[in-house]
Specification:
Blueprint (H helix, E strand, L loop, with lengths): L1 H28 L2 E7 L5 E9 L5 E4 L9 E5 L5 E11 L4 E6 L16 E6 L6 E13 L3 E6 L11 E3 L5 E7 L5 E5 H5 L26 H14 L2 H14 L4 H13 L3 H14 L3 H18 L9 H14 L3 H13 L3 H11 L7 H13 L4 H13 L10 H13 L3 H14 L7 H13 L3 H14 L4 H13 L3 H14 L4 H13 L3 H13 L5 H5 L3
Antiparallel strand pairs: 1-2, 1-4, 2-3, 3-6, 4-5, 5-6, 7-8, 7-10, 8-9, 9-12, 10-11, 11-12
Length: 550
């Protein structure tokens, strides 16, 4: 009898162990979801599975369904749908990714230890949990700390990316099919460990997907991403980055300032005002909040003609002075000088700029701004040139692109003083400092006119050609080219340039006048007469003089 009793007890204990294990695994099954990715037109792109692994909507799945997709949704084991909000990271070699959904679904934990023996595959099911037992055949290591699980059995094709869990219901990996029909699983921890950094937004792999990348968890990295988003994403995605930043770092000024600037760009000044008031309330560094408030107002006053009664240059100056009252920094005095300049008080602004040149923030910009004050005050040219010289001298030596704006400004000043040789020296230096980057057509046109003054005709031809390359629809450039080509006896080329000018601007008499002169030089009397008569019809009195010569 004792033996039978012991046997019964053994069975009871065995059943109890199975039930406890089953409960944990069944609970984990609630974290499994289906993934569907879509094209821009709303058609289905691909589908897969995955599992929620984080309290803030973090999930892991395979990466391949996201490649080329525009957006995605997941449906959990209760039938609830979640939008995929952002991609945290992906690895195309191991075909895994981590992303975030909008919401807080049921999650399970990721295993931190290596599994062995039997594990459980959790299939997606809206009804009873779909749980199957699989035996691990072997385990390989990669990157020294992650596991690559190999199974000897097979699994249905529609189970791809479903999670394997251990006895504790912890995810060990996601099911993947091998080409030979076997199955394997890449360590779930490998995907779960993925984190976004400041350069994730530029990741070539992630940019194959239309879904935005996640904002990093550290403030400096997040700030970098937010700044890069302004250059690389549309306005909707950029706004999401800004909102994420504010949510993650509510005491940091940068998020509010970026949001306010977005509102200003959209003409929503009242909303921008409210955002900056919130920044002043919540920011840890109140002086920075007041400074950014001043900056937002100042930028609006400079670049928008749309009125907003609550804002003015005086209001911007007031906020900047509040920043100084909290923390008397030179950068705040610099901001105040810029605002004072914009108010038209050039002498006061000049005095502040020059005072700042004797502080730790001494730089070329301060001398340049002082030169602008002197220009407005109609100071002698020598004073202005001395300040521009100082601006360049204050830059790192040898000169870099930092000095480029000041070199250009000095070149323009030389040009206006009719010192064309020195102007060209600075124009060429500016071109060199810009490291070969294409410049705007106005620069090339300005240098072209300067080169004409010193009879550097070949250089002038090169620059007017560059201006045309940058802005091929500007008829003036073709007219200038034709005029110079006539001057250096390149009349056939002049005909081509003048013809193009007339095509772009049929009512522009200069084009026809130059076309007539070029043809006259080539002996094409009929073409010359026709073009000159057209110029005369359009009101160019110079045409008569040339018509007499035909």
């Amino acid at each position: 009898m004792k033996r039978i009793y012991l046997l019964i007890m053994s069975i009871v204990f065995s059943i109890t162990g199975v039930l406890a294990q089953s409960a944990q695994v069944q609970k984990a099954a609630k974290s499994v979801f289906t993934l569907t990715t879509f094209n821009k037109d709303g058609s289905i792109h691909a589908s897969s599975h995955g599992v929620f692994v984080g309290k803030d909507g973090e999930a892991i799945s395979t990466w391949e369904p996201f490649v080329g997709a525009d957006h995605a949704v997941v449906v959990d084991a209760n039938g609830k749908t979640y939008n995929v909000d952002a991609i945290v990271g992906a690895n195309e070699i191991y075909d895994v990714c981590k992303f975030i959904v909008e919401g807080n679904p049921i999650k399970t934990d990721v295993a931190s230890t290596t599994a062995n023996g039997n594990v459980y595959l959790l299939g997606y099911s809206l009804k009873k949990a779909d749980i199957k037992t699989f035996k691990i055949s072997s385990v390989e290591k990669f990157m020294d700390k992650y596991n690559y699980y190999i199974f000897s059995s097979t699994a249905p094709d529609n189970a791809g990316s479903c999670p394997f869990v251990n006895n504790n219901g912890q995810v060990i990996g996601l099911l993947q099919h091998s080409k030979n029909g076997d199955i394997h699983a890449t360590d779930a921890k490998f995907a779960a460990d993925m984190v976004a950094n400041g350069f994730t937004i530029s990741d070539a792999v992630l940019r194959t997907c239309g879904i935005r990348t996640a904002l990093p968890d550290t403030e400096n990295e997040a700030l970098l991403t937010m700044m890069m988003a302004g250059e690389q994403t549309d306005s909707i995605s950029r706004q999401k980055y800004i909102d994420d930043f504010i949510r993650k770092f509510p005491s940091s000024t940068e998020g509010y300032a970026n949001k306010a600037s977005s509102y200003v760009n959209g003409g929503k000044f009242e909303e921008a005002d409210k955002v900056m008031q919130t920044a002043i309330e919540k920011a840890a560094k109140k002086d920075e909040a007041h400074c950014e408030y001043a900056k937002v107002i100042y930028q609006k006053e400079l670049f928008s003609n749309k009125p907003y009664a609550s804002w003015s240059l005086d209001k911007a100056l007031e906020e900047s002075k509040k920043a100084s009252a909290i923390n008397n920094l030179d950068i705040y005095r610099h901001q105040q000088a810029q605002i004072i300049y914009s108010k038209g008080d050039y002498q006061n602004a000049y005095d502040i700029f020059m005072a700042l040149t004797k502080t730790k923030i001494r730089n070329g910009e301060l001398f340049y701004e002082a030169s602008q004050c002197k220009t407005q005050l109609k100071a002698p040219q020598k004073e202005i040139m001395n300040l521009l010289d100082s601006a360049i001298a204050a830059c790192p030596q040898p000169l870099t692109s930092v000095a480029a704006p000041y070199v250009l400004a000095r070149g323009i000043a030389y040009n206006e003083a009719k010192d064309y040789h020195n102007a060209l020296i600075d124009y060429n230096e500016y071109d060199s400092l810009m490291l070969g980057r294409p410049l705007n057509s106005s620069f090339y046109y300005t240098r072209y006119k300067c080169e004409l003054q010193v009879h550097r005709f070949q250089q002038a031809l090169n620059d007017i050609a560059r201006a045309i390359i940058v802005t091929p629809t500007e008829p003036t450039y073709y007219a200038e080219m034709a005029s110079l080509q006539i001057r250096v006896k390149k009349n056939e080329d002049a005909v081509k340039a003048a013809t193009r000018c007339t095509m772009l601007a049929p009512e522009y008499p200069d084009g026809y006048l130059l076309l007539g002169i070029a043809n006259m030089e080539l002996g094409n009397k009929d073409e010359a007469k026709k073009a000159l008569e057209k110029a005369k019809t359009l009101g160019d009195k110079r045409a008569d003089e040339y018509l007499k010569k035909i």
